[in-house]
């Protein structure tokens, strides 16, 4: 019974979840205009999209948006449909999309489960926000002078915190 265990959400253990929806952050609607698609914020968990996305990154995703090869997408896992995953749509094939993770060592993409039916591809990632990292801690995990981030670390974070997620380079090919 996953729902009663600590560290689970929606009946799925946290370690099995690659993308966790973050409903507390709310939805951003299209302002009521026809043709607009709903936007949502989701949180990345897991290493399958490193170096593009890291554990803890927040993504602005657009549900129902058209998908093109190279786009980063949110989809339902073909074998565990209560599990949402984030992958890169490599190419459209008969029957759906061939998807790959940017981290070739993580697995869990079309090389394992084949073509993903188009109806399981839910959203297109529009932007990535990387939260401010926590500073190093002092002895015993206590905060203190060592718990502060350097100016260089804060500036580095500020430069890379919010970025659009672009298509992959030509070197990503379906296998």
Tell me what the structure shows.
The chain has 175 residues and is mainly beta. 8% of the residues lie in helices and 30% in strands. It has 2 helices and 11 strands; from the N terminus they run βββββββββαβαβ. It has helices spanning 110-113, 151-160; strands spanning 8-9, 12-13, 19-21, 27-28, 39-44, 58-63, 72-76, 84-93, 96-100, 121-129, 162-164. The strands form 2 sheets. Strands 3, 4, 5, 6, 7, 8, 9, 10 and 11 form a 9-stranded antiparallel sheet that branches. Strand 8 and strand 9 (96-100) form a beta hairpin. The chain is elongated and about 50 Å long. The protein starts with 7 loop residues before the first strand and ends in an 11-residue tail after the last strand. Residues 1-16, 21-34 and 169-175 have low confidence and may be disordered.
Total helices: the number is 2
What is the 3D form? elongated
- Label the structural class: mainly beta
Could you tell me the strand content as a percent range? 25-35%
Low-confidence stretches: 1-16, 21-34, 169-175
Largest pleated sheet: 9 strands, antiparallel
In angstroms, what separates the terminal alpha carbons? 37 Å
Give me the strand/helix succession.
EEEEEEEEEHEHE
Instruction: Report the count of strand segments.
Output: 11
Whole-number mean pLDDT: 75
Radius of gyration: 18 Å
Helical residues, percent: under 10%
Layout of helices and strands:
Blueprint lengths: L7 E2 L2 E2 L5 E3 L5 E2 L10 E6 L13 E6 L8 E5 L7 E10 L2 E5 L9 H4 L7 E9 L21 H10 L1 E3 L11
Antiparallel strand pairs: 1-2, 3-5, 4-5, 5-6, 6-10, 7-8, 7-10, 8-9, 10-11
């Amino acid at each position: 019974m996953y729902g009663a265990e600590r560290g689970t959400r929606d009946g799925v253990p946290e370690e099995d979840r690659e993308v966790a929806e973050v409903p507390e952050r709310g939805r951003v609607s299209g302002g009521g205009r026809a043709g607009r698609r709903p936007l949502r914020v989701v949180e990345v968990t897991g290493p399958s999209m490193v170096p593009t996305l890291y554990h803890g990154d927040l993504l602005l995703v657009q549900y129902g948006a058209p998908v093109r090869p190279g786009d980063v997408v949110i989809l339902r896992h073909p074998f565990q449909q209560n599990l949402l995953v984030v992958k890169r749509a490599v190419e459209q094939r008969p029957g759906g999309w061939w998807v790959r993770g940017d981290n070739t060592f993580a697995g869990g993409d079309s090389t394992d489960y084949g073509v993903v039916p188009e109806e399981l591809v839910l959203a297109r990632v529009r932007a990535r926000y990387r939260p401010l990292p926590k500073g190093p801690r002092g002895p015993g995990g206590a905060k203190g002078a060592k718990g502060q981030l350097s100016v260089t670390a804060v500036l580095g974070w500020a430069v890379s915190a919010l970025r659009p997620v672009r298509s992959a380079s030509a070197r990503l090919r379906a296998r």
